[in-house]
Please model this.
Amino acid sequence: MRKTMMMMMAASALLAATAAHAQWVNQLLNQYAVTNESGQMIILWDEGGYYQDNPQYGPDKSFDGNAGTFYDGDGGGAGGWVGFELQSPKLITGIRYVGRGGQLARIMGVRIQGANAPDFSDAVTLHTLYPPPDWNPTWWRDEQFPSPAVLQPFSYVRFIALPGMAGGNLCMVEFYGADPLPEEAPVPDAPDLTFDACINHRMNLFWTSAPSNAIFYEIQRKIEHEPHFSPLTRVFAVTGEQHFFDDSLLLYRDTTYRIRAVNGSGTSPWVYVAATPLNSGRGQWIGLPGSWENNPIYAGDKVFDGNIATCYNSPGNIQNGTWTGLDFGAAREMTLLRYVPRRNFADRMDGGWFEVADDPDFTTPTGVHTNIGTPPITAITEASFPPPAPARYARYCGPDGSYGNIAEVEFVLADQPPLPPNGLAVSGSDITNDFALLTWTLHDAGSPLSPPPAPPAPPPRGPP
Model:
């Protein structure tokens, strides 16, 4: 059973998808809702009524473009729901919403469903809303849900709250999606990797999707001794280059990643990539203070975060004399340099150099890699050299006019035994079980994570 209500679609509710949207979530589906002869959207909703039968809490309030109104449904004890019929079947791939202030709990567990029957008897749950506890419900929130369920086109879409949650108290709701691929669409092409490498113990993948007809990409990972690959993420396909960054620390474990493209006709072959962590130097960041527009995403420590999509960019009034580096905490021997330029600004490394020193002011530095040209953005550049004397400090210096632009630096150090624990002491004892309780702290800066094994041969690319 359902009721219908008519409403005019407010212009403020017809916000375009943001630039971050993939091509599969760039249609505002509210614009494709079935309307009456006056152009009013036909709202579908449950038969449970709304708070005190007051129209200001009716189901149309979730689509009126007014953040000050909201749906407050009774739901008949089963959880209130609101939705609409689409003019033609669509893929339903994302939602953008604003909730009622102070009522975050009522949004938790709201399900986004698609259906092809007007009574939603064949409803498929595409996504469930669980916004983080620190989110303010009065802010716009954008969620995408690449999954096998979105490969099916639907004629109806709705949100449905948990029982007793007043229909979710959603103030504004925008559904996003796209036209489905033709039924005869071919299986998508495998992703064309343009960069795949591990640096500073973290993995980066870049790939292009054009001219593929992929809807989303699936990425999995297998760490040594694990019998199977485990899902990591799915991301919608966009035109151009895409990036995946695994921010989990790879501690000298043989790790293999694989990625494939997916659409309604099937999947591409897997593409395999091996990750081989090295003995990256760790320690306290040192460098020129500040960043472009004081934005922390351009701070000097981003050069050591393992993510080549981030970079160092000095403040706008400082083009020259820029540098960023590490204090290892003790003198260490460097055996290899690995670095990646800032994407689209690789030429800003031309003329830069690397050096080490025994003092933080680099008053008597030793150059270890100079005369840098313009490095490629499709691979990590490695520089080997006769190992200099052990030094505590290492840094990259940008040439004049460069604003320090560089994406990532890895100082690879010679292996050394782990340092002993700090402050080892008996802090107490367990009389019942007759054993001592020991406490200590670890040396972190400059200590290797563990002796690295010999790197494995990378698996072949292509199908398993």
User: Anything to note?
Assistant: Residues 1-21, 445-464 have pLDDT under 50 and may be disordered.
